[in-house]
Amino acid sequence: MKVTVNGEPRELPEGTSVAEVVASVTAARTGVAAALNDEVVRRSAWEATTLRDDDRIEVLTAVQGG
Hints:
Blueprint: E1 2-5, E2 8-11, H1 18-25, E3 32-36, E4 39-41, E5 56-61
Parallel strand pairs: 1-5
Antiparallel strand pairs: 1-2, 3-4, 3-5
């Protein structure tokens, strides 16, 4: 299936979860948020939330700086 991850098209297998996409984008364990089709997905739902063809997912990572 075709999805858009952080603005880039990707081909992913059917049944791919939000958790799998997040893991492919960042190894960070904290400070990470995910939005599926402009709706924030709670971390507790990442494993159970699967993507569908033409979905858009944004994975955001908090960055500290000064």
